[in-house]
Amino acid sequence: MSRSVRVVWDDRLVTYDFGPGHPLAPVRVELTMALARDLGVLDKVELTGCDPATDDELALVHERGYMEAVRRVSATGRPDPAIGLGTTDNPAFPGVHEASALVAGATLAAARAVWTGEAEHALNIAGGLHHAMPGAASGFCVYNDPGVAIAWLLSQGARRVAYVDVDVHHGDGVQAMFHDDPRVLTVSLHESPRTLFPGTGYPHETGVEGTAVNVALPAGCGDAGWLRAFHAVVPPLLREFQPEVLVSQQGCDGHALDPLANLLLSVDGQRRTYAALHALAHETARGRWLATGGGGYELVRVVPRAWTHLIAEAAGAPLDPATVTPESWHELVRLRTGEVPPLSMTDGRSAEFRDFADGYDPADAVDRAIIATRKAVFPYHGLDPQP
């Protein structure tokens, strides 16, 4: 399906590191790249490097005063709680500006490749820092790389960009940056803000002209409910919006093993989402697809498998879920983490679901979440909220 796929990677991306014990451990992307390499997935893509985002590029969405404050923290390592650096979520560390700017630069390199036609799809698995606000760090995120990339695409003449965020946490930073811009459709599927950070992402948050879309799913939602919600909301909106570029944030922290949230997805269910987004990129965005990583805090059993599947799907060569993980990778996992690695690329789930067109069940919490979102935004797009 894909003509050319670029994966942006630089070994320095692991310097985005809040220190020992922090959930966002860079070993997760190190193990992902190693697994993708050992399974031959990286042989099917073009691997390219990147430069840090410049101040002017970061200033497309971030306040310059904030960037100057991040640079001061970066030079000294001293906290600045006024900008959200030096908190439990976002510890201050020397070099934080440089590490964060490199993450943003990697996503920008992917955006450039897609926009110029150098690649049809491009990925930065170290990116997806969707909580960063224009003037503050938040939720493990210092610079908002998806936001920077979207703003850059608009600066290059893109008239419609769709952003689909499947992280378990609401994509609040990206929504805030484009809340009043009808050129950007932001769609976030996440655990209900009643039970999870950041406490936003209710269906009534609709932005201008219904271009902010939020599906707030109940704690305990698994593959069947999640996929039902995704297909009830995302494809109709993308087909109507017809974006020139599809940008996706592929946080895999909705997995049942993730320690920071309460959804019950499997790697198999997540894999089906990647396939759906890939198909929608071709159907609605002329194949232009920019994908980033995001959240994911089960560092060994979930993140590397999930994002290796993502890269393989984007490359047009999806892996058989029964694929055995290589012994070479097992050795690296034991060396870097001391943990027992998963033996295959599947959780053994079928990830089947019923389509919402089959009918709405008001007794089902997932269906109530779906209908709340559809009622809030579908009329803006000329769509019928009813199944």
Task: Note down, in words, how this protein is organized.
With 387 residues, the chain is α/β, with parallel strands linked by helices. It has one domain (5-51, 100-381): Histone deacetylase domain (Arginase, Chain A, 3-Layer(aba) Sandwich), CATH 3.40.800.20. 36% of the residues lie in helices and 10% in strands. The chain has eleven helices and eight strands. Helix 4 (96-116) packs across helix 5 and helix 7 (223-241) packs parallel to helix 11.
Element layout with pairings:
Blueprint lengths: L4 E4 L18 H12 L7 E3 L6 H4 L5 H13 L19 H21 L4 E4 L20 H11 L5 E5 L6 H7 L5 E8 L20 E6 L5 H19 L3 E5 L17 H18 L4 E4 L10 H12 L12 H11 L27 H13 L10
Parallel strand pairs: 1-2, 1-3, 3-8, 4-5, 4-7, 5-6, 7-8
Helix pairs in contact: 1-9, 1-10, 4-5, 7-8, 7-11, 8-9
- Beta-strand residue percentage: 5-15%
- What oligomeric state best describes the polypeptide chains here? single chain
The helix tally amounts to 11
Q: Please list the strands of the largest sheet in the order they lie side by side.
A: 2-1-3-8-7-4-5-6
Q: Quick recap of the structure?
A:
It holds the Pfam family Hist_deacetyl. By secondary structure, the protein is α/β, with parallel strands linked by helices.
Q: What features would you highlight for this structure?
A:
alpha/beta; HDACs; 8-stranded parallel β-sheet; Arginase, Chain A; 11 helices; 387 residues
